Every structure is written in structure tokens, then in C-alpha cells.
Give the backbone structure.
Amino acid sequence: MLLIQLESFKKEIEEFPLETKEDMLSLDGRFLNGEQLNRKDFKTFKIDKNNRIQEFRTKDHRGNWRAISTLLKGQYLVLVYAFHKKSQELQEKDKDVIRSRIRRIDL
């Protein structure tokens, strides 16, 4: 499986604290290598009937951080969105960003 980072994702993850960014990218790598990540670090779910996403999670003293990806064609893990999570559930505005970015992927 190949890892692809959207340009918008790259800009967002650059804003993460260095250690948090390293932790997040480590989780992505472990997932790509076939490791079964625990529920504290990873979750997969549908945000609507057409979009299944993977949520990579890390936490530090500043709060909760997320990287959102989607699997395409069974061979691409596309990182689409990175953000500092401030609420319990994924907000509708975040879901809208994710949906929009997934729609625009052209592989």
C-alpha cells in the first residue's frame, strides 16, 4: 500500500508540535506495515454512506490531535486532513472538509 499526503494535509500537519507530528506519522507507518493499532491510536468508521475514513489519534499535554485518511482502490492510503481536536465528536464542519477533499482526489 502506498501513502499519499494531500498538500492541504502537509500544511496542516506542519502546524503540529514536532513530537506530536512525529508520533502521528509513526502511527501511519505502523498501519502501512500491517500492525494492528489499538483503539486508543486508531479508529475506522463511516462519516456518511459513501465515505469510510481512518482516524489516527495522538494526545499530548496540549490536547488531542487527529490525522484523517481514506483508502482508495485498495492500494492507496491518502492522508486528507490533520487537526487539533477540541470536541468529543467529529464536528460537521470537519466532516465537510473531509468529504470535499476526498471528492477532489484524482489518482
